[in-house]
Inverse folding.
């Protein structure tokens, strides 16, 4: 078999065989197929798409490119969640301890931010000392002992995705249905979860811009999960404005801590309860999502979710005194509220641009190797549909550099559309998919 023939076949719209897909994934992971051929192949897949069978084969080839974590000896049933990536998406920071506090173990491997979308790993690293590089043994020991782990994807799980994702990021091939499906599901399959709740984002701050595309993505992931014996539910959630108020790293951790204490933004709290409810239902702790939501709200209200969060921080070497006094999380030197230039209704927000403003400030990455400033970020003050008076704060920028602050201010102002016509508030969710 030759890589070039497989590229040509896909370029011309052909359907690849299981063996051809395995050959390509193995060859690229092991280094016998070079970046330039993999890049050409990814672009061919991006332009031509893949059949369901090809997507499934690609997912399995990527899942089995490394170790498959077996968690059966530490927990009888493990539930995981995954978001397709958004802006202000700090859901895991609240949902994982909440679900764990309800007695359902959650061992989650999570990723870094890339482009406009933030990553839970970067947010957690705002907590001084917090380790995100647990070994498989440490992962399993902690999961068995305290029922909660949030760490980085280990090097031995789905190594094909690590290589392919990095290449997609620099070749304009990220927003492709089969490539997103295989990237997410290969990691979830390799990480050993029995059940998975997928938070599929749709809108200006998501990879899927239309409901139709998001639904197709969700159905494909549910189908593949089912085929390999995992229970999967997908929620289609709005990403046409940031979730909650805070976008950044330490600022989002602060907002998650407020939420774990029973406060926090209303939309964010509700979003977390809905995701937690699905996980509790899949894990058999709740008869249905309604009961799951009640259990999740009780776990937050009683302080049990917060205690789980603290237990995780302590177990992973984080400074507990900092999360107990979140004012001690990294703080930016410059804090500038920016007034609304005109009065009217907030009609539209370009959420991706809000995410990119955080990258401008130094809080995200343009390239994978970039280091980030955990202190910087944006606090938004309004949701779509709100009436705003001219001159009242539209958002507040947390920056450590005047030039970056000016760049972010300009981008953020352009990202907000204020007009005289009232508009309806945006829904939090558009639907739930549990069948392919
Ligand atoms: N998240 C992933 O893990 N992979 C993608 O391709 C997109 C979002």
């Amino acid at each position: 078999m030759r890589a070039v023939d497989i590229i040509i076949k896909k370029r011309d719209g052909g359907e690849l065989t299981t063996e051809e897909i395995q050959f390509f994934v193995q060859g690229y992971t092991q280094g016998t197929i070079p970046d330039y051929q993999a890049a050409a192949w990814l672009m061919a897949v991006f332009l031509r798409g893949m059949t369901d069978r090809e997507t499934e084969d690609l997912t399995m080839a990527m899942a089995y490119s490394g170790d498959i974590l077996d968690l059966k000896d530490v927990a009888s049933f493990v539930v995981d969640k995954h978001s397709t990536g958004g802006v202000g998406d700090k859901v895991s920071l609240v949902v994982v301890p909440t679900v764990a506090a309800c007695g359902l173990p959650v061992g989650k491997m999570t990723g870094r931010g890339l482009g406009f979308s933030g990553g839970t790993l970067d947010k957690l690293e705002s907590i001084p000392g917090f380790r995100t590089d647990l070994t498989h043994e440490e992962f399993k020991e902690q999961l068995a002992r305290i029922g909660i782990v949030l760490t980085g994807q280990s090097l031995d799980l789905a190594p094909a995705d690590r290589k392919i994702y990095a290449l997609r990021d620099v070749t304009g091939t990220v927003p492709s249905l089969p490539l997103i499906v295989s990237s997410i599901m290969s990691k979830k399959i390799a990480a050993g979860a029995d059940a998975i709740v997928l938070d599929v984002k749709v809108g200006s701050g998501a990879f899927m811009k239309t409901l139709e595309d998001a639904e197709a993505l969700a159905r494909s992931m549910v189908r593949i999960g089912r085929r390999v014996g995992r229970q999967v539910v997908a929620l289609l959630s709005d990403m046409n404005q940031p979730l909650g108020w805070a976008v950044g790293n330490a600022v989002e951790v602060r907002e998650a801590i407020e939420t774990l204490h029973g406060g926090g933004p209303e939309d964010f709290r509700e979003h977390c309860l809905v995701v937690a409810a699905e996980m509790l239902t899949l894990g058999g702790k709740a008869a249905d999502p309604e009961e799951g939501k009640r259990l999740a709200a009780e776990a937050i209200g009683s302080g049990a979710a917060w205690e789980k969060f603290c237990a995780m921080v302590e177990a992973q070497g984080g400074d507990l005194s900092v999360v107990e006094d979140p004012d001690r999380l990294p703080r930016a030197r410059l804090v500038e509220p920016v007034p609304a230039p005109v009065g009217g209704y907030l009609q539209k927000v370009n959420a991706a641009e809000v995410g990119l403003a955080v990258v401008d400030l130094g809080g995200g990455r343009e390239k994978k190797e970039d280091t980030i400033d955990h202190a910087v970020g944006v606090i938004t003050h309004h949701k779509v549909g709100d009436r705003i008076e001219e001159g009242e704060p539209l958002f507040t920028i947390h920056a450590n550099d005047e030039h970056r602050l000016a760049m972010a201010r300009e981008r953020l102002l352009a990202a907000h559309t204020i007009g005289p016509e009232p508009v309806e508030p945006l829904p939090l969710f558009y639907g739930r998919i549990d069948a392919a």
